[in-house]
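Action item from last meeting closed. Structure (230 res):
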């Protein structure tokens, strides 16, 4: 399978929808009208103040939207977890991958991206084409806090929809490791997604011991597979 880079150009051209139609034709993909309605509902619910986006996974190291300001941030009530089954992009229908979502409980450290008002709707429409492909996320405005615990705004945060057929919460750790170590799709491997997220967090001085431990286990599983195949 030829690997494509997830770029702004690919998103704007409808490339993600095309990949879904080719690689997972049975996957229910939101229509342009449904995405537009979701975005409009989110903007209608916008609190006062600047518009921020909370990045906790690939949006940290590959945002594909233009941000005027980046700040490390924390949200409460949600934690980063490999809880989203993906049949395209980082997996296939025969070998499903996993990507990150915000699941209920705990807290999460990530990056808040401030988007300029003049380009807000354009940037968010691109973001919706990327993140709201199948409607497995519920976009919410969540308070974001700085390192001192002071609230500095509200950010759009893509939380997992537990009623979605793609929700994969509660998987055994061995299954999570297996999927991350073996799944690969049109835009790369699930393992690379994990490793790049860890690298992005480290580069910003954001500790995530759980993710680092998972990365070590996945790297070990990849080494074992390579030794068997070699």
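Sequence:
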């Amino acid at each position: 399978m030829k690997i494509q880079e997830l770029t702004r150009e690919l998103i704007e051209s409808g490339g993600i929808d095309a990949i879904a139609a080719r690689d997972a034709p049975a996957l229910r993909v939101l229509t342009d009208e449904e995405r537009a309605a979701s975005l409009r509902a989110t903007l209608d619910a916008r609190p006062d103040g600047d518009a921020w986006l909370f990045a906790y996974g690939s949006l940290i190291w590959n945002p594909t939207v233009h941000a005027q300001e980046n700040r490390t941030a924390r949200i409460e009530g949600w934690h980063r977890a490999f809880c989203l089954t993906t049949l395209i992009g980082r997996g296939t229908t025969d070998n499903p991958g996993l990507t990150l979502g915000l699941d209920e409980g705990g807290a999460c450290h990530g990056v808040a991206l401030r988007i300029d008002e003049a380009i807000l709707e354009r940037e968010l429409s691109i973001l919706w084409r990327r993140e709201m492909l199948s409607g497995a996320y519920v976009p919410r405005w969540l308070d974001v806090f700085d390192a001192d615990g002071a609230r500095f705004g509200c950010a759009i945060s893509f939380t997992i929809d537990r009623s979605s057929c793609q929700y994969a919460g509660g998987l055994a750790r061995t299954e999570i490791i297996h999927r991350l170590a073996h799944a690969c799709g049109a835009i790369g491997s699930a393992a690379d997604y994990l490793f790049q997220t860890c690298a992005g967090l480290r580069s910003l001085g954001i500790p995530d011991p759980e993710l680092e431990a998972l990365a070590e286990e996945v790297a070990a599983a990849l080494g074992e597979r390579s030794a068997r195949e070699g």
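Note appended to the action item: The mean pLDDT is 96.
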